[in-house]
Amino acid sequence: MKILVPVKQVAVLDEDFELRDDGKDVDVDFLDYELNEWDDFAWEAALQLQEQHGDVIEIVPMTVGPEEASDSLLKCLGKGGERAIRVWHESLQDSDPAVIARVIAKVAQREQADMVFAGTLASDHGYSQTGVSVAAELNWAKAAVVSKVNISPNASCIQVNRELEGGLEESIEVQCPAVLTIQLGINEPRYASLRGIKQAKAKPIEVLSHTDLGLQDSDVGIAGSRSRVRRMVMPAKGQAELIEGSVVEQAARLADIVKQLRGGV
Amino acid sequence: MNSILVIAEQRRGELMPSSLECIGAAVELKSSNNSTVIVAIIAANASEFVSQLSLEGVDEVITIVSPVAHFQADFSEAAALSLINDRQPSLVLAPHSVDAWGYIPALATTGNYGIASDVFAIRYEDGNLIATRAAYAEKLHQELEFPSYATTVLTVRGNTFKVIEQSGNPVVSDFAAPAVDLRTKHIEYIEPEGGGEVDITQAELMLSIGRGIAEEDNVEQFAELADNMGFTLGCSRPIADNGWLPKYRQVGQSGKTVANCQVYIAMGISGSVQHMAGMKHVANIIAVNTDPEASIFSIARYGVVADIFDIAEELETHFE
Ligand SMILES: Cc1cc2nc3c(=O)[nH]c(=O)nc-3n(C[C@H](O)[C@H](O)[C@H](O)COP(=O)(O)OP(=O)(O)OC[C@H]3O[C@@H](n4cnc5c(N)ncnc54)[C@H](O)[C@@H]3O)c2cc1C
Ligand SMILES: Nc1ncnc2c1ncn2[C@@H]1O[C@H](COP(=O)(O)O)[C@@H](O)[C@H]1O
User: Which value does ipTM take for this structure?
Assistant: First the structure.
């Protein structure tokens, strides 16, 4: 049984940033990158299943992103797995989640994966779309916001918990093959050992383009997207009254405000 | 005639309030889009929701009877797909809810529709649909357009659009959805752990801590501060997920809404949509964060750009 785990290298804004000339995104010079938090949990879920069931389960991390996105794959490989896949070509630039899903689905087919564990959402743009779109591309069953997974290898169905609003959960049975989107808190992601990090560097990362996967230029990038960014805008500043001064002054003012407001309650 | 379709949601026999907000959004848009508003409800007992959905401005309510009592992704997707095929709406609105996350992206893929999630502003410019959503952890907004799609599906952020209070007199009809293979099956609901020492939904004064506290050992210091101030201690999700505070103290979408809170102090909390879902209604929000761009400041009444440890230490001297 093979589990494909798509991971995103999410962008984090620098404190000061500028938009790109076309105004549709932030200039990449002002972005830092890290592994999406949700994907750390998804990879851990896959690692734990492999530990539970042994080599009958193969787990493969993949990403759609440029060279630098390999860092996130290395982070995964530092904890386990034998190989990874990275898909990139400049025409994938500005792809929306629908396109990313199309690419992930092609990889799942090529790998003959039995399951896809995506993250519930990616912290940069919070689309929460990709995993469930992958399921549609593959015509597989799906369950979103999964907080517990129970799998026996080669069983025809699995049992998972979906996390609903307000802390309510729902336990459901899902037919395989399936896409799950994994929620925070499902496990405790491990840290990679120094040895693991070293070993990861020797593990192969296969690099593919969309055309290697049978996709055309018109299937990816802006052309293939189901939404198109018109422009990025700075949100209107809130009404917050900023409390300035030294820490002592700030705290004193804060204490006054709290005492005054508290009195009104 | 052009139409806007709202897909309403229910859970365990209760209409999800976010559905009413979607209806509000649709009715607000109908004149600029010169369209009718259709509201569909998918449920085993769909007809029971008709009166609640019959609001002023709604032209038609469509009941779709589900073969199962609980949300089922394959059925919702197939039902929505065939209804859209039948009515050809230019715009479809659904709440940005956990159930919607479970099938709406698949619906757009299968039906070949435009899509955007977690949208909080919708308008038409020269007849073109423009949806606004957040980007980069809420620090920027992106305006999206959907050229070349006859139908676009948007999931709508909660607590954004006004609910319509007046009832109306829509046409009511029934729509038969096609039979499909249901690949998931409901087993049971698992209730959130009840009890706990406090019910934060009742608290009027709250001090909540987030990932900014960095380590479990630091929780104690803020618990004491809250106590001395007469505030109830709350937290963001990572603190509960780590087991540093019990889940019943978590504020937000998957935690609790602090319905009675008058003063909410957020310390080391960035202000994710899911956290704000439980507290952004509070009249007096005070945020302390080292990042001046943290989105929590956008809803705060008072903002302090500072280290929470420094502020906490100083505050202690004022509340002994
Ligand atoms: C379906 C779903 C449901 C969810 N439900 C909830 C929910 O109910 N409640 C919830 O909270 N989250 C929920 N989340 C998670 C949410 O998306 C965020 O991950 C979470 O709210 C982040 O918590 P945080 O603000 O504490 O951490 P972060 O986003 O990591 O923010 C930490 C903040 O602390 C600041 N900081 C760091 N150090 C200091 C310091 N020394 N002094 C001052 N400031 C400092 C940083 O600048 C940063 O802004 C949910 C997510 C999903 C997908
Ligand atoms: N560029 C990408 N490469 C690989 N996986 C991705 C990518 N973007 C999104 N994903 C997956 O989709 C999930 C949800 O992302 P999103 O739909 O963008 O919120 C992530 O947690 C990943 O599992």
Answer: 0.96
